[in-house]
Specification:
It contains 10 helices and no strands. With about 500 residues, the chain is mostly helical. The chain has a domain at about 355-405 and about 410-485.
Length: about 500
């Protein structure tokens, strides 16, 4: 009788049993394996064979004594290797051991079958729970997708209504655009001139790169021109900036509407997908990729902000269509007064730079003259040092020659003492002359550095004078008339 789960084998599949031996080989004697822990597989993706097949295959026979494998058995007497029985026949296990081994195998088999039955019952419950949970989860996901599609349709209708209203408001502003564009184009000239003057003055070098009154007046002029352009747009129905704002709001709504249409198409497609639909595949790891950048609250707030922004721009655009001619005149007069102030500041600064340039040239000439004189003195000191070195050579040569006098002629006479004194005096003089030479050379270096500073400062002043007088004032000789600024021509 075969156990359930084992393949049935034919009679001829069993090999013929080998003949019995009188004495089994020593290598075939193995200890019991009942105290081994059965092999537990890590997964259920195994062949259809039962687990007992793998546990039996995983056992490794050992040569431990029988008394250790069966702790409940009484210790048996170890049979000597040399048998006292005739023909060398002896028994390694008792009959009780044989019965106990069989009973242990039966109990293990029953335990294994019982565990298998419980595992099958657990698997059936697990499969049923998994199916129900998957159906419930998929139903909830489908329901959420349907609600998402309805939300997108609502916001799409709101965007379409606001977009139509913005288009109508933008078209109503185009009638005033031509005259206002001419007025704003004429104010662009003074703004560019002031801006270029600031950029040109940034090319000043060194200490002349100061935040002087000219730069302050230029910055003020730029602010006034910008303020005047803003007031022209606000008070004189200057709709260019507002049209740009309207265009930006319209583009944001159109982009949002296009995103809503694409999202509606994708979510509607996902809503209609089923287990039997075509085109479903595995995308391993897609649940770990979080490409979302918003939550439902921020998603709804984004569209609501776009609609609110469009409504605000439409209200502002309607207010900008009321303006007065007096505001135009006041704006032109304010720009003209600031233009005159900047020119006056340039004139005063050019005068200051010219005076500083004249003084630098005077100091530079004096410095060059002093450099010439100190160089002359250095040459004199160098010549004096050379003369003293020749005298030192003469004195030291005399002393060296006098060391060759024979015997008693090596006398410390007055000439010897005077020569020694002369060498010391010349050395002291040379030290003083070298100190004077070093001081003169240091002074020359300082004068040369001062000359370089003055020359560099003169170049800086020439550059600043050229920028302010030629470039900046050359651009500011002409100014648009008030009629041009007001956009009458």
């Amino acid at each position: 009788m075969e156990l359930y789960g084992y393949p049935l084998k034919a009679k001829y599949a069993f090999p013929k049993p080998p003949p019995t031996k009188i004495l089994p080989a020593t290598s075939t004697v193995a200890a019991t394996y009942k105290d081994r822990i059965p092999y537990q597989p890590d997964s259920i993706s195994l062949p259809w064979m039962p687990n007992s097949y793998y546990r039996a295959a995983a056992l490794n026979p050992t040569l431990a004594p029988i008394s250790e494998s069966f702790p409940g058995l009484p210790p048996t007497k170890i049979i000597p290797f040399i048998s006292e029985r005739p023909n060398g026949v002896f028994t390694r296990h008792t009959l009780d051991d044989w019965h106990r081994s069989n009973m242990t195998n039966y109990k293990e088999s029953e335990t294994t079958r019982h565990n298998a039955e419980r595992l099958r019952a657990d698997l059936n419950r697990t499969i049923k729970d998994v199916y129900q949970q998957g159906k419930r989860t998929q139903g909830e996901s489908t329901k959420n997708l349907g609600e998402r599609v309805n939300d997108i349709e609502y916001w799409k209708s709101e965007l379409c209504l606001e977009l139509d209203a913005m288009i109508r408001e933008t078209n109503s502003l185009t009638d005033m655009q031509k005259r206002l564009e001419r007025a704003l184009a004429d104010t662009e000239g003074p703004f560019q001139v002031a801006h270029k003057c600031l950029l040109n003055r940034e090319k000043r070098m060194g200490i002349d790169l100061v935040h002087d009154d000219v730069e302050k007046q230029l910055i003020t002029e730029i602010k006034i021109i910008r303020s005047c352009r803003e007031r022209l747009q606000q008070c004189l129905n200057t709709v260019n900036a507002q049209l740009m704002c309207n265009k930006e709001a319209r583009q944001e709504m159109e982009k949002d509407l296009a995103d809503k249409q694409m999202g509606h198409h994708i979510d509607n497609k996902c809503y209609q997908l089923k287990n039997t639909s075509r085109g479903i595949h595995y995308y391993k790891g897609v649940e770990c990729v979080d490409a979302t950048i918003s939550v439902p609250e921020t998603w709804a707030r984004f569209t609501d902000n776009n609609i609110f922004r469009s409504q605000s721009q439409r209200a502002t655009s309607a207010k900008l269509r009321a303006s007065t001619e007096s505001m135009l005149m006041g704006t032109a007069d304010e720009m003209w007064r600031q233009f005159s102030k900047v020119n006056d500041a340039f004139t005063g600064r050019i005068t200051e730079i010219a005076n500083a340039k004249s003084k630098i040239q005077t100091h530079l000439a004096k410095t060059r003259q002093e450099i010439f004189q100190i160089e002359t003195k250095i040459q004199v000191i160098q010549k004096t040092i050379k003369d003293k070195e020749i005298q030192l050579k003469v004195a030291q040569t005399r002393l060296d020659e006098r060391t060759r006098r024979p015997n008693v002629e090596l006398c410390r006479d007055t000439a010897q003492l005077r020569l020694v004194q002369e060498v010391n005096e010349i050395n002291e003089t040379l030290r003083n002359l070298h100190q004077c030479l070093r001081a003169s050379e240091d002074m020359l270096q300082m004068l040369v550095r001062s000359k370089a500073v003055l020359e560099h400062d003169l170049v800086v002043k020439n550059n600043s004078l050229f920028i302010d007088q030629e470039r900046c004032m050359g651009m500011r000789k002409t100014y648009p008339s008030t009629v041009q600024i007001l956009g009458y021509v």
